[in-house]
Amino acid sequence: MKKLLFILTLIFSVGLTAQEIKISGVVTDESKSTLPGTTIVVKGTKKGTTSDSDGKYTITAKTGDVIQFSYVGLETKSVTVTGSTLNVTLMGAGESLQDVVVIGSRNPTRTVTESAVPIDVISMKEIASQGPQVNLNQILNMVAPSFTSNTTTVADGTDHIDPAQLRGLGPDQVLVLVNGKRRHTSALVNINGSPGRGSVGTDLNAIPAFAIDKIEVLRDGASAQYGSDAIAGVININVKKNTNKLDVNLFGGGNFSKNANDHSGGVDGGNYQLDLNYGTGLGKEKSFINATASFQLRDATSRAKDVTGTLFNAYNAVEDRAAAAGTNINALFGNITNTPNTLQILSAIKTYAPAVGYFTPGQQTAILGATTIAQMQTALNFDATAGELAYRNLERKDFNMKVGQSAVKSAQFFLNAAYPINDKLEAYAFGGTSYRDGEAAGFYRRPNQSRGYSGLYPNGFLPEIHTEINDVSIAAGLRGMLFENWNFDLSNTYGRNALDYSIENTVNSSMRESSPTVFDAGGLAFAQNTLNFDINRKIDKLNIAFGAEYRNENFKINEGVPDSYNLYDINGGIVTGTTPNNIKVTDFFNAARPGGAQVFPGFRPSNAIDKGRNSFAIYIDLEYDVTEKWLVNGALRFENYSDFGNTTNFKVATRYKLTENVNLRGAVSTGFRAPSLHQIYFNSTATQFVGGVPFEVGTFSNDSQPAQALGIPKLKQEESKSASIGFTAKIPTANLTLTADAYVVQIDDRVVLTDQFARPAGTFAAGTPQRDLQLQFDAAGATAATFFANAINTESKGIDIVISHKTSFGNNISLKSDLSGTFSETYRVGAIKGSPTLVANGQVNRYYSEASRVYLQEAIPRVKANLSNSLSYKKFDFFLRNVYFGKVTDPNTADANGDGRVEGALVNGQVVEVEHPIWGAKIITDLSVGFKLTEAAKIVIGANNLFDIYPDENLGPQNAIKPRLVGGAVDYTAAPSAIDLSNANQFVYSRNTSQFGMNGRFLFARLSFSF
Questions:
Q1: How far apart (Å, rounded) are the C-alpha atoms in residues 428 and 426?
Q2: Rounded distance, CA 366 to CA 73, Å?
Q3: Which residue among 66, 589, 718, 900 has its CA within the 20 to 30 Å range from the CA of 856?
Q4: Helices 361-369 and 314-324: crossing angle, nearest 10°?
Q5: What is the Cα–Cα distance from 207 to 214, expressed in whole angstroms?
Q6: How many whole angstroms separate alpha carbon 739 and alpha carbon 655?
């Protein structure tokens, strides 16, 4: 009986053991973050699954079976089944939750090295703790080689919103997302001399860096997936979700540089910032609200040298002595040729001239002997700078421009929240607001210049451009499950960026003493509202995604106050075509005084616009694992714009696993970029009178009558074709990963901002090209005009390489190293697309000038590399980064090689100056040391640009022969011309291009608390 019982028990046990059971659990990494996309297989069988977006999985197996868990870059772990619950933690260095990406693929569990396209994932945790950069543009400029952004100087609004580029393409050819939702662009269109001229970018600095968890940079064309602007790629900013935690960051630093304070040394550019981040749950599992506040005070830097040239003339000296005695000579005339006070003016000058002690006896005799205004003008027309500087106790540096970074005050807030309504539906919202008050300056108005007014500013003045940049964004939506298996996301995203100009410490010199010194010059605003509906589902090996988007955009130009743009006569009336010359306001030497606020005349009522458009798009995105090794992705997108019609684009990408550790990948796609509303409608013009007839000069909108009259076509979308091929490799034994990707991007009908076209001077016979163009300008009511136009086709090529390594030496010592580099080039393909009349008049080169060519092709580093090392030891961490910035070409021309002439070339039958300074490559070193004071407090001290490196110095005054056209050939027999790229010692370094800025060494300290 006992033997029978034993046999029955044994049979029962074997049957029980052989029975399959349902096993479930959660896969996490060593930081307890869940690991979606973990590969889970029952060894010795074909059973397998992957963990979901929460790291959860379910699989069937027998007790005693071995289940293998593997995740890219982490150790593979095998566990024996002993029960129905099996939670697993995977250890090791490599990809973690940070490397699960939401761009490049709509598969929610796709990771970086599994992707068919190149993606950089930048964790902000270490950067925010270790790096010296505090705004998003500069952070990306130092950590992402394919990304380029630098602050500009003396470039109006571009001083305050930095243009940024990806893969050397335009600022408007990269799409920015926040939490996967389209971000609005800035209100500013870059029309001044800087890289990205003519483009409209996204104001990344409006997003507080402290609010960001990680940044994904997709380095591949993605218009078929995400729509307009994604020709170069996509930047997706993921906002923090932390809960039950308060982070406080105190940051302070300044430029401790040999060239600080106009090369006198010391410290300038002080930067002080307070960041706060707090997250908490909302009373339900998986609910959260995370809020960030950031406050910054940043001082200006100054990198000019003592100004050269004439500052004061003799009249300035005499008027100063008269003013000291209570007599305002300037008030005695409005127009020096039309005043009843001629004798009084002459008498006053003769009375106070003897008080100028450094005038020579000969000069005093000429002054006392003058009996007419013309004679007195001759007598006083000499340089009095040295004497006046000594008399007024001034130095030449007191007349310097502010050349360097602008001053900024900012306050920023950002919020991210989600709340699960039930287990299949979640509501979410995120957004923020940013206020920045910027201060930059223009060219110094010297006392001896008619555009100033010495009656208000005896020593001249430096006009200031103050900007108020208000940015607001809000997104809200619902996401969850439909029909049990379909994931959906319904959202609406609104954003607005506004830039208002206040011009201060300036004058409308035609108003003289009655001029205000502060002007509201108007402003720009751009708003965008985007409605999205996205659905996806994974069916076995196929991930299906499709959706629709509706977007509405609006662009405004707001006019300034009348005094900011008007030109007045001596009676206070507005100058018109019938205003006699003798009542136009002049200075003492009969030079006309200009109207409008000096440095930035306000937008006029005729410039003010309020324009909008809408677009609708549908897309489908499929991703299929053909085999365990072969992945294929395809996307198709149709989009319709209310102002220019339809566009359809596609993308096909693939990845093949040669081995467990080596992947090949590639993609081909078409793309597009809709011309921005700014490019279609921006205009900024002024009125000039020729023979009593008003003519307009300036930048005209693309839909304007002058554009039509001169044959400028309406703007249409840019269209692109791109291809990329690359590989990823891992060497697990060495904890090493490597990616390399080559690409080519062809863009047709690229939008550029032209140079100025001009009405031909002279008399020409009817029917000649010159006469036809004169008639077209006359019909347009213009004499000089700049436009946005689809003028060129371009091709860009490059290769990006990323190598990462992480190792542990034991004893709490770990080292993480990243080496990345980019090599790229862009050039024009084919002929310039110009209007027949302008081409016939030899003005085709003004569509796409030599300076525009340099800005597009050579003004940003085409070679850039980054080597970062992070070493941790117990409570210490050490951060060392070296960034190599390749050479750049200055768009200005000069005698760069010192042979006495500026080289020229025949381009479209015209002589073009083609000799440019080239600023050499540099290496910038960042170093920081951190120490954990307590579990809640950490201090970091360090330096950006540790070795105080500056760009190559600009070229100063020179005399050189400029090329000209003689007999159909380039000729160098003209008399030498004066050239000074430094602008009288002010631009010691080029203001038009710079690899890394001109601020020199920056030392900082950061104190962080986490509660």
A1: 7
A2: 88
A3: 900
A4: 80
A5: 13
A6: 13
What is the rounded CA–CA span in Å between residue 783 and residue 797? 40
As a three-state string, the secondary structure of 94-133 is CCCHHHECCCCCCCCCCECCCCCCCEEEEEHHHHHHHCCC
Nearest to 723 by CA among 783, 776, 795: 795
Q: What is the pLDDT of residues 131-159, one digit of tens each?
A: 788 888 888 888 877 888 777 776 666 66
Q: How far is CA 143 from the centre of its chain?
A: 15
The span from the CA of 753 to the CA of 191, in Å, is 7
* Cβ pair 819, 730 in contact under 8 A: no
Angle between helices 314-324 and 373-380 in degrees, nearest 10 = 100
Return the beta strands (E) in 316-406 as ranges: none
Q: State how far the Cα of 500 lies from the Cα of 465, in Å rounded to an integer.
A: 10
For every residue of 23-51, DSSP letters joined together read EEEEEEETTS-B-TT-EEEETTSS-EEE-
CA distances from 761 to 694, 783, 908 (A): 17, 10, 21
Residues with Cβ within 8 Å of 691's Cβ and at least 6 positions away in sequence, in order, are none
979-982 — which CB contacts under 8 Å span 24+ positions?
979/894, 979/895, 979/902, 979/955, 980/955, 980/956, 981/890, 981/892, 981/894, 981/917, 981/954, 981/955, 981/956, 982/954, 982/955, 982/956, 982/957
Dihedral of CA atoms 59, 60, 65, 71 in degrees, nearest 10, equals: -10
Q: What does the DSSP 8-state code read for residue 338?
A: B
Give the Cα separation of 897 and 960 in Å (integer): 11
- Average pLDDT value for residue range 589-594: 94
The answer to whether residue 712 scores a pLDDT higher than 80 is yes
Kindly calculate the radius of gyration of the chain based on its CA atoms and give it in whole angstroms.
33
> In this structure, what DSSP letter does residue 955 have?
P
Q: How many residues does the chain have?
A: 1011
Cβ–Cβ < 8 Å for 450, 592:
yes
Contacts of 671 (CB under 8 A, 6+ apart): 221, 222, 223, 224, 230, 231, 649, 719, 720, 721, 722
- Joined together, the tokens standing for residue 932 give 């954990």
CA proximity to 47, closest of 20, 86, 73 = 20
Contact 726, 665 (CB under 8 A): yes
pLDDT at 169: 86
Residue 103, CA distances (Å) to 111, 212, 344, 415 in order: 10, 16, 77, 22
Task: Check residue 862 and report its DSSP letter.
Answer: S
pLDDT attached to residue 500: 96
Q: How far apart are CA 152 and CA 164, in angstroms?
A: 11
Q: Name the helix (H) or strand (E) containing 289.
A: strand 288-298
Q: Are 574 and 585 in contact (CB under 8 A)?
A: no
The vertex-902 CA angle with 900 and 905, nearest 5°, equals: 140
What is the Cα–Cα distance from 183 to 202, expressed in whole angstroms? 8
pTM above 0.90, yes or no: no
191 is written with which tokens? 């029309």
For the chain, counts of helices (H) and of strands (E): 15, 48
pLDDT tens readout for residues 775-795:
888 876 778 888 999 999 999
140 burial class (0-12, 13-18, 19+ CB within 10 angstroms)?
A: buried
Q: How far is CA 992 from CA 159, 750, 982, in A?
A: 12, 22, 11
Of 167, 58, 50, nearest in space to 111 by CA: 50
Question: What is the number of other CB atoms lying within 10 angstroms of the CB of residue 628?
Answer: 10
Closest CA to 127 of 267, 251, 295, 31: 251
pLDDT(693) > 60: no
